[in-house]
Design goal:
- The protein is globular.
- Helix 1 (about 5-20) packs across helix 5 and helix 2 crosses helix 4 (about 50-60).
- It contains seven helices and no strands.
- The N and C termini lie far apart (about 35 Å).
- The protein is mostly helical.
- About 15% of the residues are buried.
- Helix content is about 70%, strand content about 0%.
- It has helices spanning about 5-20, 25-30, 35-40, 50-60, 65-80, 90, 95-100.
Length: about 100
């Protein structure tokens, strides 16, 4: 079974390590306890949207990038191919118009 919090933790840990930063450095920059950030990276705790924003800011990464990485990993685990571009039939649709009516 795919667990979102584990995939998210893996992405955050990989990003931190690729920057050559320690858990202590990122937890300090994000103003999150070291133990709690460690649990998030290990997939043992769910991250709130506020905490996730603090961590991604501390890593200097857009939240959208982190979520895209998580989505890509889940798609691979599911065996789903996600195109990098909008399919032609969907490009003509105006999602902003349909969302405007929902406001």
């Amino acid at each position: 079974m795919i667990v979102f919090r584990q995939e998210l933790g893996d992405v955050l840990r990989d990003a931190r390590r690729s920057q050559g930063r320690t858990l202590r450095q990122v937890s300090s920059d994000a103003r999150v306890s070291l133990g709690y950030l460690s649990e998030i990276e290990r997939g043992q705790k769910e991250a709130s949207s506020e905490l996730l924003a603090s961590v991604t800011d501390a890593l200097g990464l857009p939240l959208s990038y982190v979520l895209r990485e998580v989505s890509d990993r889940i798609a691979v685990a599911e065996g789903v191919a996600i195109p990098d571009t909008v399919p032609e039939g969907l490009a003509d649709a105006a999602p902003s118009a349909s969302l405007a009516g929902a406001r």
